[in-house]
Write a structure and sequence with these properties.
The chain has 457 residues and is of the alpha+beta class. The protein has 2 domains: 3-71 and 418-438, no CATH class; 78-193 and 273-394. Helix content is 60%, strand content 11%. It has 10 helices and 11 strands. It has helices at 3-29, 74-101, 112-128, 133-194, 200-214, 270-304, 335-339, 356-363, 377-417, 421-456; strands at 39-45, 49-52, 56-59, 63-70, 220-223, 229-233, 236-240, 243-244, 250-252, 255-259, 264-266. The strands form 4 sheets. A 4-stranded antiparallel sheet has the order 5-6-7-8, covered by helices on one side. Strand 7 (236-240) and strand 8 form a beta hairpin. Helix 2 (74-101) packs antiparallel against helix 9. The longest helix has 62 residues, at 133-194. 35% of the residues are buried.
Length: 457
């Protein structure tokens, strides 16, 4: 081997070892960078040269860096996507249901349950003291408290539904934004790959976008030969080599199927599914609250219309009645009752001491109401509150489980793709020693060349 050949081989070795040191430095610098994937410089032996002496022989061609690759594990990436989808679903669902739970502050003195008891108790007192102005005033106030409590619960459910609906819209917008970004990254990655480059930073960004996307909707991926990635969701093609496809946006509350009239997809995870499922439950809670308001209106009015007050008036409404029923939103005490507590009837004869009507209305507290599935008012409401509480607890537990799974898979992924400072420091020492050895050998060859030149001169 000539001195020039040895010099070239060692010079290439210095470049290779310097690249390894630079790669380690980049890894250490990005140890806290979200989404960064540990890189490694891959060395390959250069093609040797054939020489001839007593026979043919081959001398080595040294070493060079073939490429710098990011350490990825496709299986772990997909596992993390699945965990993110489950976590996103239950985070969205828990948030919406927790907001709904605040509409039912039970047990407390400010909820519908206490207002129901207060209303029927007020009529019971009026039955014991027919014509008593204080008892009539207590009925008027209890009725206002009850309608206020029901309307307050309704308002909070509507607010929770509005927030869930807005969240669904935001998720759809973010999904389209992310798929557009992934499609753009695909083009850049394909271009760099075709030119022989290693687009590691772009690959990291794409992987980060895919993981963010998986928190919004459950996704599956596949990688093409040119480095581009296809992204699917349960058969719907979101991203391919041709670009991104907009997510269908029409849906029915409680059913996470999205359609644009031509294409339909049923999603199973992510914040988008959680929002739609939450909206279905919120609508169910609202429907049950409407049932309570409508049944109170019809049952109380049916009895109260038979009454006769001290002024001889009969066939009066206690609660405002509409057709169709107004539900919780329109649950109100009639204007006549609000205008004068003394106009409240306690009996059907109009005579002093007649408390039969008030007693009948008080008896509704233990009656099985047809409109409530043969439950009492209190029992039906307690069942609603229990359902909300159970839904929140189940969703919270599932979110906790999914959150733990995300942490577990993330730790596994980091053990493969993350930067380990101890390992990087060990590699740095090894590469530094290799560099110093090559530099020392190059110095020896350089000195030998000088010595030979001086002898020739």
């Amino acid at each position: 081997m000539s001195i020039n050949s040895a010099t070239n081989i060692l010079s290439q070795a210095l470049d290779a070892f310097q690249t390894e040191l630079n790669t380690v430095g980049n890894n250490v610098s990005n140890v806290n960078t979200p989404g960064y994937t540990r890189e490694t410089a891959n060395l390959s032996e250069n093609e040797g040269t054939t020489g001839y002496g007593l026979g043919a022989y081959e001398t080595g061609g040294g070493v060079s860096v073939s490429n710098i690759t990011g350490i990825q594990n496709a299986l772990l990436n997909q596992s993390l996507s699945s965990a993110n989808s489950g976590n996103g679903l239950y985070q969205s669902l828990t948030s919406a249901l927790s907001a709904a739970q605040s509409a039912f502050p039970e047990p407390s003195g400010s909820g519908v349950s206490a207002a129901l008891s207060g209303f029927f108790n007020a009529f019971s007192s009026l039955a014991s003291n027919p014509g008593s102005s204080s008892s009539q005033l207590a009925v008027q106030q209890a009725a206002q408290t009850l309608t206020g409590a029901v309307q307050s619960a309704y308002g909070q459910l509507q607010q929770a539904s509005a927030q869930a609906t807005a969240g669904i819209g935001q998720s759809l917008s973010q999904i389209n934004q992310l798929t557009g970004q992934i499609a753009g990254l695909n083009q850049q990655i394909a271009a760099q790959t075709a030119g022989g480059g290693s687009p590691n930073a772009l690959l990291d960004q794409r992987n980060t976008d895919v993981q963010t996307l998986s928190g919004l909707i459950d996704v599956q991926t596949s990688t093409n030969a040119n480095g581009t990635m296809n992204v699917y969701s349960n058969g719907l093609n979101l991203v391919d080599e041709g670009g991104a496809t907009a997510m269908p946006s029409n849906y029915t509350a409680g059913v996470p199927t999205f359609t644009d009239g031509t294409t339909s997809v049923t999603i199973q995870g992510g914040a988008l599914a959680g929002g739609v499922l939450a909206l279905g439950k919120l609508n169910s809670y609202t429907s049950q609250l409407n049932n309570i308001a409508n049944s109170l209106t019809s049952e109380v009015n049916a009895l109260y219309s038979t009454g006769k007050n001290g002024s001889g008036k009969t066939n009066q409404q206690f609660f405002v009645s509409t057709n169709p029923p107004a539900g919780a939103a329109g649950f109100q005490v009639s204007a006549a009752i609000l205008a004068s507590a003394s106009s409240i009837a306690s009996g059907t004869s109009g005579k002093a001491g007649d408390g039969a009507l008030a007693q009948s209305i008080a008896g509704l507290s233990t009656s099985q109401i047809t409109g409530l599935g043969s439950s009492t008012f209190g029992g039906y409401y307690d069942n609603l509150v229990g359902t909300v509480g159970a839904d929140v607890q189940n969703s919270t537990n599932s979110q906790s489980t999914q959150g733990a799974l995300v942490k577990q898979v993330t730790a596994q992924q980091q053990s493969v793709s993350g930067v380990n400072l101890d390992e990087e420091m060990s590699n740095m020492l090894m590469y530094q020693q290799s560099y110093e050895s090559a530099a020392k050998a190059l110095s020896v060859i350089d000195q030998t060349a000088e010595n030979l030149i001086s002898v020739i001169q």
